[in-house]
Specification:
With 75 residues, the protein is an all-alpha fold. It has a domain of 48 residues. Helices cover 63% and strands 0% of the residues. The chain contains 3 helices and no strands. The two termini are 16 Å apart.
C-alpha cells in the first residue's frame, strides 16, 4: 500500500513530532524489489478486472490463464 502511494501519488512525509519508521526513505535492493513487485501485481489486477468486466467477449481459457498468471505474480 505504501509503495503504491509513493509510486503513483506522492512521497510520504512525516512530521518531526512523529517517529519515522526505520524502513521509510530507504532505497535498497529489497525496497526496490517490493515496489516493482507491488506495481506488477497492481497492473495485473487492473488487467484482470478488465477481463472480468468483459467476460462475454473473452474466452474462458484466456480468463483462466490470466488468473493463474496473476496468482503467480501475487505469490
Amino acid at each position: 500500500m505504501f509503495s503504491g502511494y509513493e509510486n503513483f501519488i506522492l512521497k510520504m512525509t512525516v512530521d518531526d513530532r512523529h517517529q519515522k519508521l526505520s524502513w521509510m526513505d530507504k532505497m535498497d535492493v529489497n525496497s526496490i524489489r517490493n515496489k516493482v513487485a507491488s506495481s506488477i501485481v497492481a497492473i495485473s489486477s487492473v488487467h484482470l478486472l478488465r477481463l472480468f468486466m468483459e467476460t462475454e467477449k473473452v474466452a474462458d481459457n484466456k480468463i483462466m490463464w490470466s488468473v493463474i498468471i496473476h496468482l503467480a505474480f501475487f505469490i
